[in-house]
Write a structure and sequence with these properties.
Layout lengths: L7 H16 L4 H8 L3 H9 L6 H10 L4 H15 L1
Helix pairs in contact: 1-5, 2-3
Length: 83
């Protein structure tokens, strides 16, 4: 079984995190400051080096002015668009 990091679904997830941040006009440093973490934390998440749990994803979305439900809905749509 392939690690989820290499699955297309995870690549879509990472791309969506990146698009959400860039679309909000924020840099990794800006998000890191809002979350109270180092910039490297955000970089590692976006590169897939560090995985985040549901609670962290919710905080990440809120720091970007979005919400978890909207993120998940957009994620599902992105997956459907790729099929």
């Amino acid at each position: 079984m392939a690690k989820s990091l290499h699955k297309k679904e995870y690549q879509v997830f990472l791309a969506q995190l990146y698009r959400l941040r860039v679309g909000s006009g924020l840099r990794q440093k800006d998000i890191a400051e809002k979350l109270g973490v180092p910039q490297s934390y955000v970089s590692k998440i976006e590169s897939g080096e560090r995985r985040i749990d549901l609670i962290e994803l919710k905080e990440y979305c809120e720091a970007l002015g979005s919400d978890l439900g909207e993120f998940i809905s957009n994620y599902e749509q992105s997956l459907n668009d790729r099929q």
